[in-house]
Amino acid sequence: MDNQRNLLLAVALSALLILGWDAALSYFYPQASISGQTEQGTARGGESASAESGGSIVSNEGDAPINLEEALASGDRVRIDAARVEGSINLVGARIDDIELKDYRQTIDEDSPPIQLFAPQGTPGQYFAQFGWIGEGVSLPGPQTVWTASDNNLAIDSPVTLSYDNGEGQTFAIELSIDDNYMLTAKQTVANNSTGPIVVRPFGLINRKWIESDGQFGAFYSHTGPMGSFGDSVEYGPDYDDLVDDGAYTPEGRAHWLGFSDNYWLSALIPDSSADTTPGFRPLGDSSFRADLIYAPETVAAGGTQMRETHLFTGAKESVVLDDYRDNMGIEKFGKAIDWGWFEWFEKPMLWLLRQFAEFSGNFGLAIIMLTILVRALMFPIAQKQFASMAAMRAVQPKMKAIQERYKDDKQKQQQEVMALYKKEGVNPLAGCLPLLLQIPIFFALYKTLILAIEMRHEPFYLWIKDLSAPDPAKILNLFGLLPFDPPGFLGIGILAVLLGITMWLTFRLNPTAMDPMQQQIFNFMPWILMFVMAPFAAGLLLYWVTSNILTLAQQSYLYSKHPQLRAAAEKEKADKERATARDTKG
Q1: What share of the chain is helix, strand, coil (3-state, %, to 5)?
Q2: Rounded (10°) angle between helices 364-395 and 434-452
Q3: In angstroms, what CA-CA distances link 155 with 151, 176, 178, 182, 524?
Q4: What gap in Å lies between CA 121 and CA 436, rounded to an integer?
Q5: Is the pLDDT of residue 214 over 50?
Q6: Is a pLDDT exceeding 50 seen at residue 397?
Q7: Nearest to 233 by CA among 332, 342, 345, 326
Q8: Which of 326-330, 418-422, 509-513 reaches the highest mean pLDDT?
Q9: Contact by Cβ (8 Å): 261, 224
Q10: Cα 66 to Cα 49, 117, 218, 324, distances in angstroms
Q11: C-alpha dist (Å) from residue 346 to 2, 174, 542
């Protein structure tokens, strides 16, 4: 009766795990993408009113959303056409508000449009950067100022200068240039031709709207939202909710860069390293947020000029590119815009290996399989020691039982004698735990690498798997796509999830360790519980786990062949346990 009650309790808890997992994702991350894939890569929406005293960091709120094509067609614009980005600059307000990433599409369809990272104010996808000045006693350009451009096209090695004359003796200029990746440079210049000095503060800002339904499963394991490098550390936060609840946030320490991060995309302002700045994040209402970078006040004497250079990164979080900017431009900790976590020292080499294997094999799915084989091969000597330790433990079991029987009334003496037996026989009871302890960080590191790696996004494998970063599309409940509906959450069991359950069940069956009936029942249905839990995960992760299980089966079969006494002893102990349980049940 106790075993039956415990079994029912275990089944109930397992069902709660399956249902609760899906419910938790739905509550905390509505419409979350388990693969960590964000189709648009941005949060969209309007911007709220805000103003700096005497300055021009202002915006509108409450306007009805306008169509993206309509917004890009209206007003004067300077075209951006570089190696990896294209778009345009709005001459009204000098806003960089149209950025497309040439190398990344919104979906896996061949005719899918590229990722629209930045979009104009007022559109459903509002997300833009702006440069300007704040100050007192001087007429400054504002959000509605129409700038004059030196050219109609911004390209590599072909900068464009935006200029504005306030008619009171001051001329403002923003020279924009772009490199062959994702970095723009803004040189802000003020020429004071009046008879007296002026005081100005150059600024740069990034404005975006975050929509809750754009949340993603990757947010459980990597930060998405405001972030930056300040002083000696990188701050992954505050979260959007924190800004809404607590208001504006000013980080401590010198700002090296700050902006907004998604799982795959990043926008960041990088200040002039020689100048003092005031960085900050603030909510603007209506789910809109802004990252500010405001330079210290500077006096521009009559007849003098003042220039300040700021960089703007707007693109994909490619590890190699971010590290290259860190090394060549001196942007401290820029590679940590990818939230590697504690295992960065292990995850980055793992990602490097994945890229090498993918280049060699021509397929990222094959690269995952090859990496899994390599990891298991490196772990094989440890597994051998584990099995040898298990065999040694089995060999001393009769002596251990004799000691336990002899000193059953003296637990301290019993423990001393058992430890003496271990020392005499050269047995380490903890050796069998070492492979498991090593595999936990390895699995988590690989798991997080596959979540963070943009290299896996929209990468196909073979047959029905068209995107390794998305869940398995061949779901059983909709007859592998023949029925016109998508099963929700944990019910979306695909072929890979079934293979995961089967291979895990086989690994448990191949390891005939003696267990009580309750433990045996748990191990019998645990693989099928994990099949439900893991079903919504990215296909690349399931591919890794299925491959790992298959290698485990092969490894166990080989090692049991090298240690037949271990298998025989385990099977005998298991059979004895089952017979004893059967006798107890009949009695």
Answers
A1: 40, 25, 35
A2: 170
A3: 10, 10, 6, 12, 62
A4: 52
A5: no
A6: yes
A7: 332
A8: 326-330
A9: yes
A10: 18, 17, 30, 38
A11: 45, 42, 21
Three-state DSSP at 212 gives helix
Question: How many whole angstroms separate alpha carbon 193 and alpha carbon 191?
Answer: 6
> 229 in helix, strand or coil?
strand
pLDDT number for residue 365: 93
pLDDT bracket for residue 170 (50, 70, 90): very high
Q: What tokens appear for 559 in the block?
A: 């090692």
DSSP state of 216: B
Residues whose CB falls within 8 Å of the CB of residue 459, separated by 6 or more in sequence, listed in order: 358, 363, 364, 365, 467, 468, 469, 540
Round to whole Å and give the CA distance between 226 and 240.
Answer: 7
Per the CB < 8 A criterion, the answer to whether 291 and 260 are in contact is yes
Beta strands in 23-94 (DSSP E): 77-81, 85-90
pLDDT in tens, 493-525: 889 999 999 998 888 777 655 445 555 666 677
Angstrom distance (rounded) from CA 327 to CA 165: 38
Q: Which amino acid is at 55?
A: G
Spell out the residues 6+ positions from residue 226 whose beta carbon is closer than 8 angstroms to its own: 237, 238, 239, 240, 243, 249, 258, 259, 260, 261, 281, 289, 291
Tell which residue, 118, 120, 144, has the closest CA to residue 132: 144
pLDDT range class, residue 2, cuts 50, 70, 90: very low
Mean pLDDT of 158-170: 96
Q: How many residues does the chain have?
A: 587
Long-range CB pairs of 570-576, under 8 A, 24+ apart, other chains included: 570/394, 570/512, 570/513, 570/514, 571/512, 573/514, 574/512, 574/513, 574/514, 574/515, 576/514
CA-derived radius of gyration, the chain: 31
- Tokens of residue 129, six digits: 């950067």
Contact of 452 with 335, CB cutoff 8 Å: no
- pLDDT score for 23: 52
> What is the average per-residue pLDDT within 568-582?
62
β-pairing, 183-192 vs 153-154, is unpaired
* The token pair that represents 512 in the structure block: 């005939």
Stretch among 55-64, 313-322, 484-493 having the lowest mean pLDDT: 55-64
Determine the pLDDT at residue 208.
Answer: 94
pLDDT tens, 364-390?
999 999 999 998 888 888 777 777 676
pTM over 0.85: no
Cα distances from 197 to residues 128, 170, 185, 190, in angstroms, run: 32, 10, 27, 12
Please report the pLDDT score of residue 13 as a whole number.
55
**The tokens of 289 are what?**
């947020």
Helix (H, G, I), strand (E, B) or coil at 491: helix
Residues 6+ apart with CB under 8 A from 396: 421, 422, 425, 427
Mean pLDDT across the chain, nearest whole number?
81
In the chain the domains, ranked by start, together with CATH numbers, are 42-319 (2.70.98.90), 356-586 (no CATH)
3 state DSSP class of 141: coil
Which one-letter amino acid corresponds to residue 523? F
